[in-house]
Amino acid sequence: MDRHVVAGIDGSPESLAAAHWAAREALRRGAALRLVHAWQFHPRPAASVPADMTERGWAKQILAEASNSVQAAHPGLRVIDQPVNEAAVAALLAAAEQADLLVLGSRGLSGVAGFLVGSVAYRVLARSPRPVVLVRAGESAADEHLPAPGGVSPDEIPAIPYRDIVLGLDTGRPCDELIEFAFAAARRCGAPLRVIHTFDVPLGRATADRAVSPYGPELLAEHEHAVVATLRPWCEKFPEIAVTETVVEGRAAAELSRAASGAALVVVGRHIRDGRLGVHTGPVTHAVLHHAGCPVVVVPHA
Q1: Torsion of the alpha carbons at 170, 171, 176 and 180, rounded to the nearest 10
Q2: What is the pLDDT of residues 177-197, one digit of tens each?
Q3: pLDDT confidence of 65, banded at 50, 70, 90?
Q4: If one looks up domain 147-302 in CATH, what number appears?
């Protein structure tokens, strides 16, 4: 099957923003875009379905409107419409299995930060075999780039440098899938990569006067060395990427959320768990989703 990026479509402004983000990513990957809308027959259709239309007809119209919008913005992109007569979670998970990436829309918690992750989106991102990106309504191509000077037309935006790709790194359990996704994303965009690693000071090593010395320089140096050692093979594999390491004492979720305010994308991970253990995204990923001010990609890993 041809390489493609999938976007889930439900007719909402946030799903349309997700479709446009997915379109840009498909172009960066040299892949097609598949728009998926799940629908099911009900004896009494939902109030959102026009009285003079069937549920199947309404599904086709929703897809057609999204497809037309995307193709108008990206005439050279191959777009495939796929209405699926199935429950939304099952349809999106099945589509993700065949895709490079799944992109979903999510309502923002506020105008400046965070996602309100609905039950469908949460269950999908917590179980998807592929990376899942969450995009808020209103997200546009301009948001991926540094501020443009006045008078710049939309056609000129791609020439403006990208904002940082942000990666949260745990040197104790480094994940190849997560690191590779972040480096590859930075290369596709020509963007800088900012790697954030946080640590806690062990109780036995805390100083008596933290206001004067919150931690010894040797502890900071240990973590900085671990970050450099973890990233070295990836920097050698992706020599064109400008990498900045930030190593600080603190909470990973807080530091990643703070960095997200000026980023194009935040990359976080999710452990693949036995289905009997339930659906989880992990506390750091969960917190970043609720506080990040830019699209967030959740990468599944062992």
Answers
A1: 70
A2: 999 999 999 999 999 999 999
A3: very high
A4: 3.40.50.12370
